[in-house]
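Dear H.,

Thanks for agreeing to be a second pair of eyes. The structure we're designing against is below in token form, covering all 397 positions.
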């Protein structure tokens, strides 16, 4: 038996301050040094930042639950701003049932068919951008590619797809406290919420996409029509902004580590490990929260029941106790175990699809693009959950 230390160290670090958001890595280091868990006095929540303990939390989904929300707000204390996600914000057994419905649409055969389309579209967009030469890697590539290929994969028929970006922004900024970022994102709610709910309906999905297949579970008596609509919404929430930021982060990482770009050009098959390294090095999804369902031990500390616990995948992915030279972007390193897709029962259900999208893009880039250069000062994105750019002007030659 280890002796229990009751006093969890306190920190005044604010993970939702602009300073932290723009440059989190030194703050992560400070938080990791406080041990397995610390208390953030600014927000009255606990924070877990070391790799080992982030993983320990994710591996105990019944103790650190998702049903009370995966943002800073505790659904048991305040009502959520939207109908909770039937996968992200639920626990077993409901979570298990609903996730299986999504998983079924993402079978290896379905993914193999999609891969062909991703490759074709990757060639088209890279050719266009080479023609254009100077463009914004955020809008013209990061957002444009998943909007096109994942939008088609879901089967979105609306011609206002860009709303999906605004919606993702609401969902992910919505996981933070009610600060300016939260409020700005929600300022689009009146147009975007009804758009999403309508786009997710059976009648508005193409006959061949992933979205409509969720409704098979209604026909077989597993889900109600309303549940299916809410489950389709998860494709919109989780599948576009995340990939978009991963792509712009990839561009930035290759520009700032040109020897890694050279490596990728020499061996385009490194696209696969390169994407994993991008997710480790600049995880688009920086943090999630869980809520304790009981008093529980983490390391030699005790966290009380019904407390919000912030878990930082961004920090875990740079923990020197886990990674050799964590601040070095190295596409040939062993990245197994990175938490960019989370892990455990809530681990990203679309991760194989996301890999397929970005690998297709990186492979085409490696073959067709000679050099990448930043043409104007990039602007980092201020965001409660995602790490990425507001704008990233680059030139392809
Ligand atoms: C959802 C959802 C939303 C955001 C992220 C996510 C990373 C899922 O609504 O189901 O997974």
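And this is the sequence the design step returned. I haven't edited it by hand at all.
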């Amino acid at each position: 038996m280890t002796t229990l230390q009751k006093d969890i160290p306190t920190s005044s670090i604010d993970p939702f301050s602009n300073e932290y958001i723009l440059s989190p890595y030194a703050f992560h280091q400070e938080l990791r040094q406080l041990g397995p868990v610390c208390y953030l006095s600014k927000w009255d929540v606990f924070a877990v930042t070391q790799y080992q303990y982030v993983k320990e939390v994710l591996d105990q989904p019944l103790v650190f639950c998702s049903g009370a929300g995966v943002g800073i707000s505790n659904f048991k204390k305040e009502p959520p701003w939207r109908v909770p996600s039937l996968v992200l914000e639920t626990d077993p057994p409901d979570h298990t049932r609903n996730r299986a419905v999504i998983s079924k649409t993402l079978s290896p055969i379905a993914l193999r068919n999609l891969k062909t389309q991703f490759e074709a579209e990757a060639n088209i967009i890279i050719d266009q951008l080479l023609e254009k030469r100077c463009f914004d890697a955020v809008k013209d590539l990061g957002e444009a590619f998943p909007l096109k290929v994942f939008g088609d994969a879901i089967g979105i028929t609306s011609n206002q797809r860009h709303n999906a970006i605004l919606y993702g922004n609401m969902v992910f900024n919505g996981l933070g406290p009610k600060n300016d970022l939260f409020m700005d994102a929600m300022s689009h709610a009146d147009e975007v919420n009804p758009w999403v709910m309508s786009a997710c309906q059976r009648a508005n999905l193409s006959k061949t996409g992933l979205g409509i297949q969720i409704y098979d579970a209604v026909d077989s008596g597993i889900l109600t029509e309303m549940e299916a609509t809410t489950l389709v919404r998860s494709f919109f929430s989780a599948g576009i902004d995340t990939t978009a930021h991963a792509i712009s982060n990839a561009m930035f990482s290759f520009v700032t580590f040109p020897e890694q770009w050279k490596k990728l050009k020499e061996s385009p098959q490194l696209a696969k490990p390169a994407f994993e390294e991008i997710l480790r090095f600049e995880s688009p999804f920086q943090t999630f929260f869980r809520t304790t369902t009981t008093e529980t031990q983490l390391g030699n500390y005790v966290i009380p029941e019904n407390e919000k616990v912030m878990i930082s995948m961004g920090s875990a992915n740079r923990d020197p106790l886990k990674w050799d030279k964590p601040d070095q972007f190295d596409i040939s390193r062993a990245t197994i175990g990175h938490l960019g897709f989370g892990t455990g029962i809530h681990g990203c259900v679309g991760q194989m699809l996301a890999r397929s999208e970005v690998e297709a893009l990186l492979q085409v880039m490696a073959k067709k693009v000679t050099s990448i250069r930043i043409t104007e000062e990039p602007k980092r994105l201020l965001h409660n959950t995602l790490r990425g750019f507001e704008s990233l002007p680059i030139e392809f030659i």
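Two observations from my side: The longest strand covers residues 287-292. Residues 108-132 form the longest helix (25 residues).

Warmly,
E.
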